[in-house]
Amino acid sequence: MDFSLDDFTEEELIEKFEAMQVAEPEEQPEEETEGAPAEEQADEPEEDNEQAFALTSNIVEELCRVLSEVTVVNEWGEYRRYCYVDCDMEAGKVYCWDTNDWLLYGFTYSVDGDAVAIDFESKKRMKYVIADFDEGEQASPFAEVYALMEKKIQDGAQWESRYQDASGTITTMETELGELRQFKADTEHAAEMQAREAVFAQFEDLVGVEAFEALRENCADLSVGAIEEKCYAIRGRNGHVAKFALENKAPKLKVAKIESKPEPYGGLFRKYGYESDN
Prior knowledge:
Blueprint: H1 10-22, H2 30-33, H3 38-68, E1 71-74, E2 77-80, E3 82-88, E4 93-98, E5 103-112, E6 115-125, H4 143-201, H5 210-217, H6 224-238, H7 268-271
Antiparallel strand pairs: 1-2, 3-4, 4-5, 5-6
Helix pairs in contact: 4-6
């Protein structure tokens, strides 16, 4: 180092060391590269970088998979509790959002071959350190959550629309059903009135009788049979005889009655030309 540690604060030293990490590496001494073909010397760093990248990608994928196994269920449905943010492979820590309180937490993890195990008991609150953003793309840590929330909202709006359509259909059906019921009631009432009037028409001889007229005015709750029975009872109490129409009969012709006298010997005298004086 070409500087003194006493001249910098702890934060300034961290920034300086991070800047040194991304700086171009110094050229290797010639004795270390002697004897190796130029192509091999150029390929070795590239292969090492590819292997390191593949290892890093596998670990990140495994961390995300293990985190996705922890879910929560509420009115929005079931979804992941932890959203991956970043990891520190040297320290063996993974950082993620907890959707229960939307705070940042860190967990320790271990790698055994291709398997990654997260110690969820080591959960600890974490905070961000603001630093300059140099290159690359940075995905929003809330993008997945917002996408899920938007889908739930859209689903809710869709179900609300279906509910409104169904409610309108039910209201229309209830109105039509009410109209049909009213039509049926009116039809039955008209039929009952017609049947009652037909019964009263059979007792025209009781018109003017107080009990009969009272029955006609207060017969709404009575059946046709009950009305008929009461009419017969009123007729019996008042001594009225039913008036029946007389059938027209053919006139009878009067025939003159001829008196006959008994003839002697059964009419033999007259048969043979003898008249009897008797």
